[in-house]
Write a structure and sequence with these properties.
The chain is of the alpha+beta class and 200 residues long. The chain has eight helices and seven strands; from the N terminus they run H-H-H-E-E-E-E-H-E-H-E-H-E-H-H. Strand 2 and strand 3 form a beta hairpin. Bound molecules: guanosine-5'-triphosphate and zinc ion.
């Protein structure tokens, strides 16, 4: 079967029924009768990010008007949306990883900015998919960088992975990933400023 084969809703329900049987359950008992249907509907919602277009989300931008220049440019317009909660799904185990993301960028002088909510929408579009945390972090940075062409983008994602906490090694702990472009890649002081701002 190739990735392009369209699996029907009924076929997906059947797969959940088979999984329940494999786990020793009886899918015909009353409590489980509608479970395959519910599970497929739930997953459609949880990974609904595949139907959200990140580039479309960032397509509405506005300019700041004339910005007085002077001093170090990075201090003129540091935009950050921090402590944005998200739930994503580990592509290895299909289990949730949950945490917070911090998204920052420095617009070009006189450059364009994006509405605050669009940063949260961007996060939603990439988080609600089967992911690894590193890719999620890079996708946020890369898409913001391409769409806004700012001086730089800084992203930090912190999350707990159920696949590590609830099964396997069963150790709590948080994974922290960062991605930097432009000024944040080149300039340690900008990076430091970002890290200072996202500090709990
Ligand atoms: N780097 C990274 N690793 C992840 C992420 N989510 C899950 N993992 C890891 O992916 C790995 C998959 O390893 P495998 O050995 O193939 O699977 P496994 O036998 O279930 O591994 P264990 O969790 O060690 O029991 C595990 O070490 C997970 O902790 C992520 O977002 N980033
Ligand atoms: Zn996992």
């Amino acid at each position: 079967m190739t990735a392009t084969h369209t699996v029907t809703f009924e076929e997906a329900c059947k797969a959940i029924e088979v999984l329940l049987r494999h786990l020793g359950e009886n899918p015909s008992r009353e409590g489980l009768l509608d479970t395959p249907h519910r599970v497929v509907k739930a997953w459609q919602e949880l990974v609904g990010g595949y139907h959200l277009d990140p580039h479309e989300i960032l397509s509405t931008t506005f300019d700041l008007g004339d910005v007085e220049e002077g001093g170090a440019l990075r201090h003129v317009n540091f935009v950050i949306s921090k402590n944005l909660p998200f739930v994503s799904y580990c592509e290895h185990h299909m289990l949730p990883f949950e945490g917070e993301a911090h998204l920052a960028y420095v617009p070009q002088p006189g450059g364009r900015v994006v509405g605050l909510s669009k940063l949260a929408r961007l996060l939603d579009a990439y988080a609600r998919r089967f992911q690894v945390q590193e890719r999620l972090t890079e996708q946020l940075a890369g898409t913001l960088d391409r769409a806004l062409q700012p001086m730089g983008v800084a992203i930090m994602v912190e999350a707990s992975h159920s696949c590590q906490c609830a099964r396997g090694i069963r150790k709590k702990g948080r994974m922290v990933t960062t991605a930097y472009t432009g000024i944040f890649q080149m300039d340690a002081a900008s990076r430091q400023e970002f890290l200072q701002l996202v500090k709990p």
